[in-house]
Amino acid sequence: MFVMELTYTAPVEAVEEQMDAHVAWLDGHYAAGVFLASGRKVPRDGGVILAGGVSRAEIEEIASGDPFAVSGVCAYRITEFLATRTSADLSTVRENPAP
Prior knowledge:
Shape: elongated
Structural class: alpha+beta
Order of helices and strands: EHHEEHHE
Distance between the termini: 18 Å
Helix content: 25-40%
Number of strands: 4
Radius of gyration: 14 Å
Largest sheet: 4 strands, antiparallel
Number of helices: 4
């Protein structure tokens, strides 16, 4: 599983110009079953996306296609982790690492 942390590198006004395209990009990855949760950081200096079911290379490619990244208004920090415990709602993405 991945934590995709976005940090805005441009004023929020520039981010807002890309918001519709960013939301459409999010919707596509939710529909594909890759994105599990997303939202703005508080204070509003970026956002966070939880994603799973793909490789590190795939998640980096997905991040590079975000209209925010393409237009240069955000930078990504991607952290991979093993979700060995989850809520019942997220049991389908729970990971059991090999001993």
